[in-house]
Each structure stands twice: as structure tokens, then as C-alpha cells.
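Handout, page 2. Input:
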Amino acid sequence: MNTIDGAQVRKVVVACDAGMGSSALLTSQLSKSLSPHSVGVEHTSVDRIPADADVVLCHANLAERARRSAPDKVVLTFQMFLGDPVFQRLENAIKAGERIDG
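Output:
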């Protein structure tokens, strides 16, 4: 399990399989909520996670692939594209500078 201090997060990546629909909407919403904290949010394929990502968000079904693609990154999983508690937990940790495990 990897960890990062929330105050060090500058880039969050939403990793998905197909690249359309719900994950794109999630990326837009997270971008709005995290931009006041100087955190960028990017949408990418689960198999092509960029090296400069600090935190990777992906659906639980894609977790194994995300961890293979980015073994040194914090990978957080969710079940629901909208309203999953992990999104608020991530924002709170970034805002408070708390440790994020994933």
C-alpha cells in the first residue's frame, strides 16, 4: 500500500477502461472541487496512467489493472461514480494535509 501526504497532492487521475461517460463526468466534478486546492484532475486509460500522477481514482473492478499500471502510486477505488464517499475523503485529506493510503 502506498501513501502520500494530502498537502503534496498536485495531480489526481481518474483512470477508466473505455474513456467516456461517467468517468469523464467524474473528472469534471473533481476538477471543480479540487482546483481551489491547486490540484489538477485528469482523465486517462487505466493502462496508461501518467508518471506524474499523485493519486489514481478508479472503479473497484479496475483496481488490479491500475496498480499494475502505476505500482508506486496511491490508488483509491470507488463503487459509485457519483456520491461515493471516497471522493469526499480525498478532498478532505488534501484540504487538511492528512495522509492518504491506497
